[in-house]
């Protein structure tokens, strides 16, 4: 999961839980069903978790960090050892 | 500091969900304020609950000077409209209160019921007292008593709402003179004394 993916995951989890809480409360209040409100809220949390916890590559790996190319290490180790001895 | 992983996301989601759950539970408790609970009669044509003592089944003076009283009650009330979507149960109890020389207030529960369904919150009928009244050190015979209906609405979340209403006033019959056949200090009333005017 890249950095942009982490931010997206965090936002999606906040939105999912917030919307789930609002919808479940509205459902429970209008239907007079407290147990239904709790069940609907837990279901929304499970769905949100399914979307945001796994590192889905098609969602959270679309902006990979571009690392610089590594330089070959030829003779670099020998120069450092000589400097230490000297 | 560990690298970002699924456990961190799961922990954050769980914490947020707990906060959101507490918020909606508080909102559910807040909606109870829009309901006014006032006991009614189970009979649609009547407005006030009706509770009275039908008979005094037993009045005994114990050796320590205290009295023991058992009664039968005629109970009619409706508390079903006190229940909301946030209500777990409604508890109702009938108490007998009286005043003595030493204490201004003496109150004892003689009948109670906890109802979880709206049907059970409507009570109508004649019931023997579930609990007897035993005075502390002064007698109750011959005293004026007041029946009260007390109720408590137990919520699923949030505040519990209580109420009390006086429903009936009467006088406990005085005891007979001491019977020489009984043990010293023990007096017994005629069982199932009927209250005047009641069937």
Element layout with pairings:
The complex is a heterodimer of chains A (86) and B (199).
Chain A lengths: L2 H29 L2 H19 L4 H4 L15 H10 L1
Chain B lengths: L5 H25 L19 E12 L5 E12 L8 E12 L7 E10 L6 E7 L4 E2 L9 E12 L5 E11 L21 E2 L5
Antiparallel strand pairs in B: 1-2, 1-9, 2-5, 2-6, 3-4, 3-7, 7-8
Considering the chains and any ligands shown, give keywords for the structure.
heterodimer; A: 86 residues; mainly alpha; 0% strand; B: 199 residues; mainly beta; Immunoglobulin-like; 2 domains; five-stranded antiparallel beta sheet; 1 helix; 9 strands; disordered C terminus; endoplasmic reticulum (chain B); membrane (chain B); transmembrane (chain B)
3D architecture notes:
- The complex is a heterodimer of chains A (86) and B (199).
- Chain A has helices spanning 3-31, 34-52, 57-60, 76-85.
- Chain A has 86 residues and is mainly α.
- Chain A has a domain at 3-60.
- In chain A, helix 1 packs antiparallel against helix 2.
- The longest helix of chain A is centred in the N-terminal third of the chain and has 29 residues, at 3-31.
- The two termini of chain A are 45 Å apart.
- The relative contact order of chain A is 0.17.
- The mean pLDDT of chain A is 88.
- Chain B is mostly beta strands.
- In chain B, the strands form two sheets. In chain B, strands 1, 2, 5, 6 and 9 form a five-stranded antiparallel β-sheet that branches. In chain B, strands 4-3-7-8 form a four-stranded antiparallel β-sheet, with no helix packed on it.
- Chain A binds chain B through residues 1, 6, 9-10, 13-14, 17-18, 20-21, 24-25, 28-29, 31-34, 37, 41, 45, 48-49, 52-55, and chain B through 4, 6, 9-10, 12-13, 16-17, 20-21, 23-24, 27-28, 31, 84-86, 156.
- Chain B: It is a single-pass type II membrane protein.
